[in-house]
TrEMBL record, chain A:
It comes from Saccharomyces arboricola (strain H-6 / AS 2.3317 / CBS 10644) (Yeast). This is Fmc1p. GO terms for cellular component: mitochondrial matrix. It comes from the Eukaryota. It holds the Pfam family Complex1_LYR_2. InterPro entries: Fmc1. GO terms for biological process: mitochondrial proton-transporting ATP synthase complex assembly.
Automatic annotation (TrEMBL), chain B:
It comes from Saccharomyces arboricola (strain H-6 / AS 2.3317 / CBS 10644). It is found in: Mitochondrion. This is Acyl carrier protein. The keyword Lyase does not apply. Pathway: Lipid metabolism; fatty acid biosynthesis.
């Protein structure tokens, strides 16, 4: 009984955390990818005399990485070990059950977390949807504003 | 009046506006999805499942080198415990854009069973 409930809440948590963290994770990796490529290329230009097989290999792998499609990034949460360790060590199931304590509270808490994260994600999505311009850069905003009255920003 | 608002916002964010105004676009995308899911063959499903499993290298790095077939069992052959299996199944759910009910998910123990379930699920794509 409890095993099924544990698995159920763990599954719920993983599902929710995965959906919750994905957009920011992908964005972070896109930034990291850009930084690394720039850094490596700069390093190559700075030291033209060194052999660059290793740098080239790194560059190649960074360029190949597609954070939006990469399965390890998109389908698995980044730190499941922490969640596991909470479940296995911090909750102290066995002690609580041995002492005859009620463990329902823990499950309730887990489901509360799931609900909170889901609602939070949905809220962010709605805010984004209803404020379509909020994520644009200043230059893009100016360009589009000029476009509204039929003008083009000089290139 | 609303049309002009939408015209502006469609310039701002075509993806956001599509859900509000673009009814023909939406309808065609649903149609396309249906066609796609109807074409999902078992070979495709198992290939994608295996790709997902290979991407799951956090806890057991030896998975990558293993030969994965439809007989492969999560626990016995891949050395995943119940929590790892949950994580893997959630990843597979995400890959196919479905949600496996708890009761079914607890009974999925091998790659073959998972592939069968996904192939039988009309929502999978």
């Amino acid at each position: 009984m409890d095993r099924a409930r544990v698995l159920q809440s763990y599954r719920g948590l993983i599902r929710t955390i995965l959906k919750y963290e994905r957009p920011s994770k992908v964005a972070n990796w896109v930034t990291l990818q850009k930084t690394m490529i720039t850094k490596l290329e700069y390093f190559k230009k700075q030291n033209p005399k060194l052999p660059h097989q290793d740098t080239d290999r790194q560059l190649e792998s960074w360029k190949k990485l597609d954070p939006e499609k990469n399965k390890s990034l998109n389908l698995f949460i980044s730190d499941s070990k922490q969640l596991r360790s909470i479940l296995e060590n911090d909750l102290k199931w066995d002690d609580k059950i041995a002492q005859g304590q009620n463990v329902d509270g823990i499950f309730e808490h887990a489901f509360d977390i799931i609900k909170f994260l889901d609602s939070q994600r949905e809220y962010t999505e709605l805010v984004d949807r209803y404020n379509p311009g909020s994520k644009l850069t200043q230059n893009e905003k100016i360009k589009r504003t000029a476009n509204v009255v039929g003008l083009d920003v000089p290139a | 009046m609303f049309r002009s608002v939408c015209r502006i916002s469609s310039r701002m964010a075509p993806s956001a506006c599509r859900n509000i105004v673009g009814r023909p676009i939406m309808a065609s995308s649903i149609l396309a999805q249906r066609f796609y899911s109807a074409n999902l063959s078992k070979d495709q499903v198992s290939q994608r499942v295996i790709d997902v499993i290979k991407a799951f290298d956090k806890n057991s790095p030896n998975i990558v080198n293993k030969q994965i077939s439809s007989d492969t069992q999560f626990h016995k052959d891949l050395g995943l415990d119940s929590l790892d299996t949950v994580e893997l199944l959630v990843a597979i759910e995400e890959e196919f854009d479905i949600e496996i009910p708890d009761k079914v998910a607890d009974d999925l123990r091998s790659v073959g069973e998972t592939v069968d379930y996904i192939a039988s699920n009309p929502d999978a794509n």
